[in-house]
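In response to reviewer comment 3 from the previous cycle, which asked for concrete evidence that the modeling workflow produces usable outputs, we include below a single protein chain processed end to end. The sequence was submitted unchanged, and the resulting structure tokens are shown without manual editing.
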Amino acid sequence: MKASEIREMNIDEMEQKLSDLKEQLFNLSFQHEIGQLENPQRMKETQKDIARIKTIIREGEVKNRTAEE
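The workflow returned the following structure tokens.
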């Protein structure tokens, strides 16, 4: 998922996507532990997507706080 795609979402969509990605990461880590994960790179990609969404959410919070001052 690209940052530009995330920025097009509203905050509710970002929160929902973040929740979905966290659940997906949990499932991937479980599959990895029992040896059923075919592509371990998916775990890294999912972690990076989570970090991107959190970063963009935080950018919005900082931007809103700065606009209020």
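The mean pLDDT is 94. We consider this sufficient to address the reviewer's concern, and the full set will be provided in the supplementary archive.
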